[in-house]
Amino acid sequence: MLYLFGQLTAMPNLLDVPDRTRVASLVAQVPVKIDPWCLTDPYQRTTWQLLASARIAIEKMWATDTCPMATVRVQAQIHAALRNGAVIFAADRAGERLGSFYRCPWPAIYEVRKPVTIGGTKLLPIQHFTYDVVGEAHVDRKPFARRIVVSLFASADPVVSGGTAGRHQN
Predict the structure, then answer these.
(1) How many folded domains does the chain comprise?
(2) Is 76 exposed, middle or buried (0-12, 13-18, 19+ CB in 10 A)?
(3) To 10 degrees, the CA torsion angle through 87, 37, 167, 79?
């Protein structure tokens, strides 16, 4: 950030550049029928589907969702950003995929490559994010929640064979 500040101080005309933030919004591509596993990291989806406890958790999450199409719309924006190269699946310093977030629906962790707005959250290059859908919040009598979480994610112990779970660090 200091580097960019220095550039802008040296060349103030850079401030006149139009905003290049892209909004990934493909509402027309939101599916009519919702796949209950559409939010789960595609690289770990099959493994999660085999676990009875995961199937129960997914059912509970969708049962508490007050507006499933709003939930799926944000995921459609993420898929659009993946297709146009604005985001990629995040990897650690060794180049290994970070995997999925640590709780249901076990979404992938992404890295931003081009400025983009997803789910109303402006994301900048190098940031890592995930799509946190808190369906189990009903246990605490809190409303269903969906949000883009921007954080530093770290690999945790393997949750399912062949994958790791990303925990965010504040």
Answers:
(1) 1
(2) buried
(3) 10
In a domain, 48, yes or no: yes
Spatial separation of the C-alpha atoms in residues 104 and 168, rounded to whole Å: 15
Amino acid at 133: V
Q: Answer whether 0.90 is exceeded by the pTM.
A: no
Amino acid at 30: V
Give the separation between CA 60 and CA 54, rounded to whole angstroms: 10
The most confident of 19-28, 48-57, 127-136, by mean pLDDT: 48-57
Which residues face 155 on adjacent strands?
Answer: 166
Q: Which domain holds residue 102?
A: 20-169
* Other Cβ atoms closer than 10 A to 143: 9
Q: Which residue has the higher pLDDT, 23 or 156?
A: 156
Cα–Cα distances (Å) from 125 to 71, 74, 85, 88, in that order, read 24, 19, 11, 11
What phi, psi does 114 have (nearest 5°)? -135, 145
User: Residue type at 19?
Assistant: D
